[in-house]
Amino acid sequence: RIEPSLALSDEPLHLGDRASVTLGARLLTGRPAPGLLARLRARYAPEPGPTSKGMVFGDLDAAPEPFEVELAEVRLDEEGHATVDVDLPGENPSGLGLRVVFELEVVDVSGRAAFVRTTRQVVPTGPRLGVGLPAGHAFAVPLVADGVETVRGTAVLERLTWRGAYVRERGRTVWRSELSAHPIQERPFRIDGGDGTVRFDEAGDGRYRVRVRATGVAPASIRFDRWGGATSRADDGGAPRLDLRLESASVAPGSTAVLRADVPFAGHGLLTVEGPGILDARVVELEAGLQSLEVIVPDAPAPNVHATLTVWRGTRQAGAAHARVLGA
Fold it and tell me: Which parts of the chain fold into alpha helices (H)?
Protein backbone atom coordinates (compact mmCIF):
# COMPACT_ATOMS: atom_id res chain seq x y z
CA ARG A 1 0.00 0.00 0.00
CA ILE A 2 1.05 3.56 -0.66
CA GLU A 3 0.48 6.98 0.83
CA PRO A 4 0.26 9.81 -1.75
CA SER A 5 1.15 13.41 -0.95
CA LEU A 6 0.34 16.74 -2.57
CA ALA A 7 2.13 20.00 -1.72
CA LEU A 8 2.02 23.63 -2.87
CA SER A 9 3.79 26.76 -1.72
CA ASP A 10 2.18 28.66 1.15
CA GLU A 11 2.22 31.80 -1.01
CA PRO A 12 -1.24 33.07 -2.09
CA LEU A 13 -2.48 31.87 -5.48
CA HIS A 14 -3.65 34.53 -7.96
CA LEU A 15 -5.76 34.24 -11.09
CA GLY A 16 -3.55 33.99 -14.17
CA ASP A 17 -0.48 32.85 -12.20
CA ARG A 18 1.48 29.63 -12.57
CA ALA A 19 1.54 27.32 -9.51
CA SER A 20 4.11 24.62 -8.87
CA VAL A 21 2.55 21.43 -7.44
CA THR A 22 4.74 18.69 -5.95
CA LEU A 23 3.40 15.15 -6.19
CA GLY A 24 4.70 12.27 -4.11
CA ALA A 25 4.10 8.77 -2.84
CA ARG A 26 5.64 6.61 -0.15
CA LEU A 27 5.17 3.07 0.99
CA LEU A 28 3.64 2.63 4.42
CA THR A 29 7.13 1.69 5.58
CA GLY A 30 8.22 5.25 4.77
CA ARG A 31 10.35 4.33 1.74
CA PRO A 32 9.81 6.17 -1.58
CA ALA A 33 7.50 4.64 -4.18
CA PRO A 34 9.30 5.35 -7.50
CA GLY A 35 7.98 4.78 -11.00
CA LEU A 36 4.29 4.86 -10.12
CA LEU A 37 1.71 6.49 -12.37
CA ALA A 38 0.34 9.76 -10.95
CA ARG A 39 -2.60 11.75 -12.28
CA LEU A 40 -3.31 15.33 -11.20
CA ARG A 41 -6.63 17.07 -11.78
CA ALA A 42 -8.21 20.28 -10.54
CA ARG A 43 -11.83 21.16 -9.81
CA TYR A 44 -12.63 24.87 -9.86
CA ALA A 45 -15.69 26.61 -8.44
CA PRO A 46 -16.46 30.32 -7.96
CA GLU A 47 -15.64 31.67 -4.52
CA PRO A 48 -18.01 34.30 -3.06
CA GLY A 49 -16.32 37.67 -2.92
CA PRO A 50 -14.59 38.63 0.33
CA THR A 51 -16.23 41.09 2.68
CA SER A 52 -14.56 43.97 4.46
CA LYS A 53 -16.45 46.22 6.88
CA GLY A 54 -19.74 45.06 5.37
CA MET A 55 -18.65 45.63 1.76
CA VAL A 56 -19.04 42.82 -0.79
CA PHE A 57 -16.68 42.38 -3.75
CA GLY A 58 -17.55 40.47 -6.92
CA ASP A 59 -20.84 39.60 -8.61
CA LEU A 60 -21.95 36.13 -7.56
CA ASP A 61 -24.85 36.23 -10.02
CA ALA A 62 -22.38 36.45 -12.91
CA ALA A 63 -20.16 33.68 -11.54
CA PRO A 64 -18.69 31.10 -13.96
CA GLU A 65 -19.91 27.51 -13.81
CA PRO A 66 -17.76 25.01 -11.87
CA PHE A 67 -15.39 23.07 -14.11
CA GLU A 68 -12.75 20.34 -13.97
CA VAL A 69 -9.35 20.12 -15.68
CA GLU A 70 -7.12 17.07 -16.15
CA LEU A 71 -3.71 18.62 -15.52
CA ALA A 72 -1.06 15.92 -15.90
CA GLU A 73 -0.26 12.21 -16.02
CA VAL A 74 3.35 11.52 -15.00
CA ARG A 75 5.65 8.85 -13.54
CA LEU A 76 7.21 9.49 -10.15
CA ASP A 77 11.02 9.71 -10.08
CA GLU A 78 13.44 7.58 -8.04
CA GLU A 79 12.64 9.61 -4.93
CA GLY A 80 8.90 9.07 -5.43
CA HIS A 81 8.28 12.66 -6.51
CA ALA A 82 7.22 14.72 -9.53
CA THR A 83 6.61 18.42 -10.07
CA VAL A 84 3.82 19.83 -12.24
CA ASP A 85 3.50 23.50 -13.21
CA VAL A 86 -0.17 24.52 -13.36
CA ASP A 87 -1.40 27.56 -15.29
CA LEU A 88 -4.26 28.91 -13.18
CA PRO A 89 -7.38 30.37 -14.86
CA GLY A 90 -7.37 34.08 -15.60
CA GLU A 91 -9.68 36.82 -14.40
CA ASN A 92 -13.38 36.27 -15.12
CA PRO A 93 -16.16 38.84 -15.78
CA SER A 94 -17.72 38.32 -12.34
CA GLY A 95 -14.70 39.69 -10.49
CA LEU A 96 -14.79 36.61 -8.23
CA GLY A 97 -11.93 34.39 -7.23
CA LEU A 98 -12.03 30.60 -7.47
CA ARG A 99 -11.84 27.73 -5.03
CA VAL A 100 -9.68 24.95 -6.43
CA VAL A 101 -9.52 21.35 -5.23
CA PHE A 102 -6.35 19.66 -6.44
CA GLU A 103 -6.72 15.88 -6.51
CA LEU A 104 -3.82 13.46 -6.91
CA GLU A 105 -4.42 9.85 -7.94
CA VAL A 106 -1.48 7.43 -7.64
CA VAL A 107 -1.78 3.88 -8.98
CA ASP A 108 0.30 1.20 -7.25
CA VAL A 109 1.82 -1.91 -8.89
CA SER A 110 -1.35 -3.93 -8.22
CA GLY A 111 -3.50 -1.39 -10.08
CA ARG A 112 -5.08 -0.01 -6.91
CA ALA A 113 -5.48 3.78 -6.78
CA ALA A 114 -4.89 5.99 -3.75
CA PHE A 115 -6.10 9.58 -3.59
CA VAL A 116 -5.24 12.78 -1.75
CA ARG A 117 -6.79 16.25 -2.11
CA THR A 118 -6.00 19.78 -1.03
CA THR A 119 -8.12 22.92 -1.35
CA ARG A 120 -6.82 26.41 -2.02
CA GLN A 121 -8.25 29.83 -2.85
CA VAL A 122 -7.25 31.60 -6.08
CA VAL A 123 -7.79 35.34 -5.66
CA PRO A 124 -8.22 38.12 -8.26
CA THR A 125 -5.57 40.81 -8.63
CA GLY A 126 -7.10 43.66 -10.67
CA PRO A 127 -9.05 46.73 -9.47
CA ARG A 128 -12.53 45.93 -8.18
CA LEU A 129 -15.70 47.52 -6.86
CA GLY A 130 -17.31 46.83 -3.51
CA VAL A 131 -20.91 47.48 -2.47
CA GLY A 132 -22.60 47.56 0.94
CA LEU A 133 -26.09 47.52 2.43
CA PRO A 134 -28.25 50.66 2.17
CA ALA A 135 -27.96 52.73 5.33
CA GLY A 136 -30.93 53.86 7.44
CA HIS A 137 -34.38 54.42 5.93
CA ALA A 138 -33.03 55.80 2.65
CA PHE A 139 -31.83 53.74 -0.31
CA ALA A 140 -28.29 55.15 -0.01
CA VAL A 141 -25.83 52.42 -1.01
CA PRO A 142 -22.15 52.74 0.05
CA LEU A 143 -19.50 51.95 -2.56
CA VAL A 144 -15.74 51.41 -2.48
CA ALA A 145 -13.05 50.93 -5.10
CA ASP A 146 -10.05 48.70 -4.39
CA GLY A 147 -6.94 49.27 -6.48
CA VAL A 148 -8.09 52.54 -8.07
CA GLU A 149 -8.83 55.99 -6.63
CA THR A 150 -11.42 57.42 -9.03
CA VAL A 151 -14.18 55.48 -10.78
CA ARG A 152 -17.27 56.45 -12.78
CA GLY A 153 -19.91 53.82 -13.37
CA THR A 154 -23.54 52.75 -13.25
CA ALA A 155 -25.59 51.18 -10.46
CA VAL A 156 -28.88 49.32 -11.01
CA LEU A 157 -31.49 48.55 -8.35
CA GLU A 158 -33.48 45.38 -9.13
CA ARG A 159 -36.49 43.79 -7.44
CA LEU A 160 -36.02 40.02 -7.02
CA THR A 161 -38.66 37.29 -7.21
CA TRP A 162 -38.18 33.53 -6.93
CA ARG A 163 -40.59 31.43 -9.02
CA GLY A 164 -40.74 27.65 -8.86
CA ALA A 165 -42.76 24.62 -9.89
CA TYR A 166 -42.67 20.82 -9.81
CA VAL A 167 -41.67 19.36 -13.19
CA ARG A 168 -41.10 15.87 -14.60
CA GLU A 169 -37.49 15.02 -15.43
CA ARG A 170 -36.19 11.57 -16.40
CA GLY A 171 -39.26 9.87 -15.02
CA ARG A 172 -39.38 11.65 -11.65
CA THR A 173 -40.91 14.78 -10.21
CA VAL A 174 -38.46 17.45 -9.08
CA TRP A 175 -38.71 21.04 -7.86
CA ARG A 176 -37.13 23.65 -10.11
CA SER A 177 -36.93 27.34 -9.28
CA GLU A 178 -35.48 30.37 -10.99
CA LEU A 179 -34.74 33.94 -10.05
CA SER A 180 -36.48 36.81 -11.82
CA ALA A 181 -34.81 40.21 -11.61
CA HIS A 182 -36.74 43.35 -12.60
CA PRO A 183 -34.65 46.55 -12.94
CA ILE A 184 -36.53 49.46 -11.36
CA GLN A 185 -33.93 52.25 -11.06
CA GLU A 186 -30.56 53.09 -12.64
CA ARG A 187 -28.13 55.72 -11.37
CA PRO A 188 -24.65 56.94 -12.36
CA PHE A 189 -22.05 57.06 -9.58
CA ARG A 190 -18.60 58.49 -8.98
CA ILE A 191 -16.04 57.23 -6.47
CA ASP A 192 -13.28 59.61 -5.37
CA GLY A 193 -10.52 58.65 -2.96
CA GLY A 194 -11.75 55.05 -2.91
CA ASP A 195 -15.22 55.73 -1.38
CA GLY A 196 -18.59 56.83 -2.70
CA THR A 197 -22.38 56.52 -2.43
CA VAL A 198 -25.17 55.95 -4.90
CA ARG A 199 -28.73 56.96 -3.96
CA PHE A 200 -31.99 55.42 -5.13
CA ASP A 201 -35.58 56.49 -4.52
CA GLU A 202 -37.47 54.64 -1.79
CA ALA A 203 -38.91 51.47 -3.37
CA GLY A 204 -40.91 49.91 -0.53
CA ASP A 205 -40.68 46.47 1.03
CA GLY A 206 -39.26 43.46 -0.79
CA ARG A 207 -36.08 41.67 -1.80
CA TYR A 208 -33.62 43.65 -3.89
CA ARG A 209 -30.27 43.47 -5.63
CA VAL A 210 -27.87 46.31 -6.39
CA ARG A 211 -25.35 45.68 -9.18
CA VAL A 212 -22.53 48.15 -9.88
CA ARG A 213 -20.42 48.32 -13.04
CA ALA A 214 -17.54 50.45 -14.30
CA THR A 215 -15.21 50.14 -17.26
CA GLY A 216 -11.91 48.43 -16.44
CA VAL A 217 -12.97 47.51 -12.89
CA ALA A 218 -14.40 44.20 -11.63
CA PRO A 219 -18.13 44.48 -10.78
CA ALA A 220 -19.97 43.84 -7.52
CA SER A 221 -23.49 43.03 -6.39
CA ILE A 222 -25.36 42.62 -3.13
CA ARG A 223 -28.80 41.26 -2.26
CA PHE A 224 -30.85 42.55 0.64
CA ASP A 225 -34.31 42.39 2.21
CA ARG A 226 -36.24 45.55 3.03
CA TRP A 227 -39.14 45.30 5.49
CA GLY A 228 -40.67 48.17 7.44
CA GLY A 229 -37.69 50.39 6.66
CA ALA A 230 -35.19 47.85 8.10
CA THR A 231 -32.53 46.38 5.81
CA SER A 232 -30.80 43.00 6.19
CA ARG A 233 -28.45 41.00 3.99
CA ALA A 234 -30.20 38.35 1.87
CA ASP A 235 -28.72 34.94 1.18
CA ASP A 236 -26.86 35.35 -2.13
CA GLY A 237 -27.96 32.69 -4.60
CA GLY A 238 -30.72 31.25 -2.36
CA ALA A 239 -30.29 27.96 -0.55
CA PRO A 240 -27.17 25.91 -1.40
CA ARG A 241 -27.87 23.11 -3.87
CA LEU A 242 -26.37 19.69 -4.40
CA ASP A 243 -26.41 18.41 -7.98
CA LEU A 244 -26.13 14.61 -8.38
CA ARG A 245 -26.06 13.14 -11.87
CA LEU A 246 -25.32 9.81 -13.55
CA GLU A 247 -22.47 10.03 -16.06
CA SER A 248 -24.01 7.46 -18.44
CA ALA A 249 -27.61 7.28 -19.68
CA SER A 250 -28.19 3.80 -18.20
CA VAL A 251 -26.33 1.07 -16.36
CA ALA A 252 -26.82 -2.68 -16.04
CA PRO A 253 -27.21 -4.64 -12.78
CA GLY A 254 -23.83 -5.63 -11.37
CA SER A 255 -21.96 -2.86 -13.20
CA THR A 256 -20.28 0.19 -11.67
CA ALA A 257 -22.14 3.47 -12.00
CA VAL A 258 -20.21 6.74 -11.81
CA LEU A 259 -22.07 9.64 -10.21
CA ARG A 260 -21.02 13.26 -10.58
CA ALA A 261 -21.70 15.32 -7.46
CA ASP A 262 -21.43 19.12 -7.32
CA VAL A 263 -21.29 19.76 -3.57
CA PRO A 264 -21.77 23.31 -2.20
CA PHE A 265 -19.63 22.74 0.91
CA ALA A 266 -17.24 20.17 2.36
CA GLY A 267 -18.68 17.69 4.83
CA HIS A 268 -19.82 14.14 5.54
CA GLY A 269 -22.12 12.40 3.06
CA LEU A 270 -24.56 9.51 3.23
CA LEU A 271 -24.79 7.83 -0.19
CA THR A 272 -27.66 5.38 -0.65
CA VAL A 273 -28.89 3.22 -3.53
CA GLU A 274 -32.62 2.67 -3.30
CA GLY A 275 -35.29 0.65 -5.05
CA PRO A 276 -38.08 -1.22 -3.22
CA GLY A 277 -36.02 -0.35 -0.13
CA ILE A 278 -32.50 0.78 0.75
CA LEU A 279 -30.22 -1.56 -1.21
CA ASP A 280 -26.88 -0.06 -0.22
CA ALA A 281 -25.65 2.74 2.04
CA ARG A 282 -22.25 4.14 2.94
CA VAL A 283 -20.69 7.24 4.44
CA VAL A 284 -18.33 9.28 2.25
CA GLU A 285 -16.11 12.30 2.94
CA LEU A 286 -16.65 15.09 0.43
CA GLU A 287 -14.83 18.24 -0.63
CA ALA A 288 -16.67 21.29 -1.92
CA GLY A 289 -17.05 21.31 -5.71
CA LEU A 290 -17.23 18.67 -8.44
CA GLN A 291 -16.26 15.07 -7.67
CA SER A 292 -16.96 11.49 -8.78
CA LEU A 293 -18.57 8.72 -6.72
CA GLU A 294 -18.79 5.07 -7.73
CA VAL A 295 -21.57 2.66 -6.76
CA ILE A 296 -22.25 -0.97 -7.70
CA VAL A 297 -25.68 -1.26 -9.29
CA PRO A 298 -27.56 -4.01 -7.38
CA ASP A 299 -29.67 -6.66 -9.05
CA ALA A 300 -32.95 -5.33 -7.65
CA PRO A 301 -36.39 -6.92 -8.17
CA ALA A 302 -37.76 -3.56 -9.36
CA PRO A 303 -36.93 -2.26 -12.88
CA ASN A 304 -35.40 1.01 -11.62
CA VAL A 305 -33.15 2.07 -8.79
CA HIS A 306 -31.92 5.51 -7.82
CA ALA A 307 -29.19 7.07 -5.69
CA THR A 308 -29.49 9.78 -3.07
CA LEU A 309 -26.74 11.79 -1.39
CA THR A 310 -27.19 13.73 1.83
CA VAL A 311 -24.32 16.04 2.82
CA TRP A 312 -24.05 17.68 6.21
CA ARG A 313 -21.61 19.78 8.22
CA GLY A 314 -21.50 20.98 11.80
CA THR A 315 -23.62 23.95 12.81
CA ARG A 316 -20.50 25.76 13.99
CA GLN A 317 -18.96 25.49 10.51
CA ALA A 318 -22.25 26.43 8.85
CA GLY A 319 -22.92 29.48 11.03
CA ALA A 320 -26.12 31.11 9.82
CA ALA A 321 -26.02 29.16 6.52
CA HIS A 322 -27.57 25.78 5.74
CA ALA A 323 -25.97 22.77 7.44
CA ARG A 324 -27.49 20.00 5.22
CA VAL A 325 -28.32 19.49 1.55
CA LEU A 326 -29.87 16.58 -0.35
CA GLY A 327 -29.55 15.44 -3.97
CA ALA A 328 -31.01 12.50 -5.90
Answer: 315-318
Name all contacts of 310-318 with Cβ < 8 Å and 24+ positions apart. 310/269, 310/270, 311/242, 311/263, 311/264, 311/265, 311/267, 311/268, 311/269, 311/286, 312/267, 312/268, 312/269, 313/265, 313/266, 313/267, 313/268, 317/265, 317/267, 318/265
Helices (H) and strands (E) in the chain, counts: 1, 25
Contact 163, 177 (CB under 8 A): yes
CA-based diameter of the chain, in Å?
Answer: 71
What amino acid is encoded at 268 in this protein? H
Instruction: State phi, psi for 299 to the nearest 5 degrees.
Output: -85, 85
**pTM of whole model > 0.70?**
no
DSSP 198-216: EEE----SEEEEEEEEETT
Q: How far apart are CA 234 and CA 207, in angstroms?
A: 8
Residues 94-128: pLDDT tens digits?
999 898 989 999 998 888 888 888 888 898 888 99
Q: Are 117 and 101 in contact (CB under 8 A)?
A: yes
pLDDT in tens, 171-206: 777 667 677 889 999 999 999 988 899 999 988 888
Residue 252: alpha-carbon gap to chain centroid: 32
315 DSSP assignment: H
